Amino acid sequence: MSFSKPKRLHACGAGVLLAAGLLAGTASAAEERGLLILTSTNDPNGNNVVVFKLDTAGTPSLSYEQTVPTGEKGGAGGNAGILQFGRELGAVANFGSNTVTELLRYGDSVAIAQTIKLADGCAKPDSVALTQDRLFVVGGNCAETHELRSGAVETVVGLADPSAAQIAVGTSWAAVTLASGSVLQLPLARNGSLSGAVNPVSLPSNANNTPLGAAFWGDLLGFTPAHSPDSFALVNKERSVVPIVGPTPPFPTNAPCWVAKGPGNVWYTGNSPGQAISTFFTDSQGGVFYKSTPLPGTPTDVTISRDGKWFAVIYSANTDAHVALFAVDSFGDLTLVANSASVGVTSFNGVAISQ
Asked: Residue 119 is part of a domain; what is its CATH number?
């Protein structure tokens, strides 16, 4: 089965760009506005956003900048994309409070802009997505569109399955992964909000076990049926599915769980039991697993910067949560730049880069 787009881009593993060179090339921009990495504690008693900053002076490092209390409750699990950030505005879902906290960046600091309540009858938000004007939220029984700046509800789509793991938004449709074993296509209206329609995507038996992470390349969805032998898969807007064999041996040894779209035809996945970043290449015919980059702990979400030059992963090692930042070269290869020190949090949930 073939897709009409995107066209093939040949990627290779040679020629890794040294992180120091990339840092030097972006030093002037960093002096004006630093690179921030945000994550959430997801604490059921009080969800906080933790902010780190890339320090380019001397040996690159990730310094702790601030903790932003949302005043709301966390508690989500088995999810992805609970925190997202655009250029100036971001959002983090508060599972236990049925709210989303809108975040505002000013300079190199982050503050709360407003608290957005879910639509009446909707509960347990565990994933968000942002476009220029809209906030998308999925939870235990609803997918919603809100006007980003006002927070007003635009569209509510009821979900019969309570296992939603992530919502992601493409050019003409949004997708919801359901950990119970399926994916939903939610078409967008002309104004960019959810239209209200729901189309199930039929998944093959070798790629339907525990769909979790998802990301778009235009209108092409990449997602991870994490516990399947084919642990990565593509879906186009016609809902045609092409499964891709993942790292071997499969689950429980390896399980790509979370997804970030890299440069060209590259996709990154957080491989939780494999304690690695597992990279895939795709083209108009399908794709292939490339390699795994080891981590010193268990990843729990991944993200890439808007300019495609930085990749971040949150992971837990022993009883501490950390953030690792990688430089991304033109081939999509990763070079470790810095790891954050412990801030006394056992695990993070959700990660976003703000430039």
From this structure: 2.130.10.10
